[in-house]
Amino acid sequence: MRHLRRLHTGAIRAAAILPAALLAGTLATASPAPLLRTPAGSKTPTAPNPSDLDPPTTPSSDTAAVAQSAPSAAVAVTPRTDGVLYERSVRLNRQDRNVVRTGPGDGFAIKGVFEKGRTFTVIAKSGDWYNIRLSDTETGWIHASLCEEFDDFSDLEFRPNPRLFSRVGSFVLTAQVGGYSFDRKSNSLELGGRVGYYLLDFLEVEGGLTWTHVSRPLETVESLFNLRLEEEKFHMVFYNLNLTVELLPGRQMVPFITGGAGSTILQGSAEATINFGAGTRLYLGKKTAMRWEVRNYRFSSGDDTSRRSNSNFEIVLGTSFLL
Asked: Yes or no: is domain 171-322 CATH 2.40.160.20?
């Protein structure tokens, strides 16, 4: 009986200890935190050794590639110390054909191939790769070994109007041909030339020399007494010094007014002459212009007993050259 009673008691104890041991093993396996250890002969637990802990996780190569592809700094517009904004650009200058990719690396797809000398605006930079603007809707990446960086001031460049420029200090040579009306009764061909100099953009001083051959027909002055002016043919030369004021200086088409004084040589005498007129220059280029004008010459002629006033008109067309 005693033997059977001892066996029964041991079975009960084993049944009670086994579930507790299984539960303790399960908790030890599931808990990620290390347990504090108590060294032998000590009642104070100590912290675990760092070497017993799990090693720190390191990022994968895919994660590093994504981090590397992020732009490091945007350089599209850079403020200068004087407050002016300008763009950073790159110029392809290493090879005849340069590859632009979709991302900052040789493993990215090819976006396009561009010739040497092309320039692009820089949007951002990642390491040795430039993010460049290919068009209004497309961008790409180019390696620094294929290009050089420079500051683009093209938007700040002053571009003057090509039709508006200064002519101060320029000489003007003009050759002209036209018609001359002597005393409103004789029309003749005239040939001449002028030399001018621009004192200001709107003010020109010029000297001219012109020749014509006057052929005046027979004229009856008084029929009662049969007074007539005989037919006359003679050469006439006149020269003058004028001031010309341009009304729209520096343009392609320039209207002007002019006036001055000089002398007219006819029939062996020289007569003081004043003149005034108006005209227009049409500049075909910066150095060449067409010129037409109308001018009135006033002077007196004849001997001391029978002097008369002359009002002669000329209409001329000429070509001017700026020196």
From this structure: yes
